[in-house]
Amino acid sequence: ETGVTQTPRHLVMGMTNKKSLKCEQHLGHNAMYWYKQSAKKPLELMFVYSLEERVENNSVPSRFSPECPNSSHLFLHLHTLQPEDSALYLCASSQDEDPWMNTEAFFGQGTRLTVV
Amino acid sequence: GQQVMQIPQYQHVQEGEDFTTYCNSSTTLSNIQWYKQRPGGHPVFLIQLVKSGEVKKQKRLTFQFGEAKKNSSLHITATQTTDVGTYFCAGLPDSGAGSYQLTFGKGTKLSVIP
């Protein structure tokens, strides 16, 4: 266990469905991330939250909507997805620190999403 | 924006052979990190390098950080089947906004033939 828990582990959804991915970290970190991992683009950064404020959105389509209600929880709300959105969605957390400190990212086990 | 290039994308080696993956950043880094992702798993942190020219070893793994803090390498001596997986480097920018924003390379997928 890495201290970062993602649910569900697997999700199959239709293109008209609405679903949410959940991430929870128990490490006391102040930054959380959503990554998309597919065969074409390994570890593609989607969103970054630092101190519960979104600070990075790498031109992600609006059908992906993140939410960070507190520093321990992160959600990714999904609606009207496309089949090409099928991928492994990874959540990570880290401590935004002086780079000389440990700033490594701890990843959850991911949600394997299939859009049909 | 910052880019981190990693080569090779794939590497197949015979068990016992050495393996090296290289990472190059378009900008100077404050630190560089290496991760390993086993098949079906998630990335797991291996090590962090901070100092210019730094070299660190973990058993058969040797990590180097370039003098200019823009490149790094991971070398595995005498690979074993347990080394199979994808190795990612990730760089933390040296300055400017987004100091928490690790930029990952695309990874090198290592296959070890028994």
What is the tally of beta strands of chain A? 11
Q: With helices defined by DSSP (H or I, 4 residues minimum), what is the helix count of chain A? A: 0
Uncertain segments of chain A are none
Distance between the termini of chain A: 31 Å
Overall helicity of chain B: under 10%
Helix content of chain A: under 10%
Break the fold down into its secondary structure elements and pairings.
The complex is a heterodimer of chains A (116) and B (114).
Chain A: E1 4-7, E2 10-13, E3 18-25, E4 31-37, E5 44-50, E6 53-57, E7 64-70, E8 73-79, E9 87-94, E10 106-107, E11 111-115
Parallel strand pairs in A: 2-11
Antiparallel strand pairs in A: 1-3, 3-8, 4-5, 4-9, 5-6, 7-8, 9-10, 9-11
Chain B: E1 4-7, E2 10-14, E3 19-25, E4 29-37, E5 44-49, E6 55-58, E7 61-65, E8 71-76, E9 85-93, E10 103-104, E11 108-113
Give an account of the 3D structure.
The complex is a heterodimer of chains A (116) and B (114). By secondary structure, chain A is mostly beta strands. Helix content of chain A is 0%, strand content 55%. With 114 residues, chain B is mainly beta. Chain B has no helices and eleven strands. In chain B, strands 2, 4, 5, 9, 10 and 11 form a six-stranded mixed beta sheet that branches. A five-stranded antiparallel beta sheet of chain B has the order 1-3-8-7-6, with no helix packed on it. In chain B, a hairpin with a 6-residue loop joins β4 and β5 (44-49). Chain B is globular and about 45 Å long. The interface between A and B is medium-sized, with 25 and 24 residues.
Question: TL;DR of this structure?
Answer:
The complex is a heterodimer of chains A (116) and B (114). Chain A has 116 residues and is mainly β.
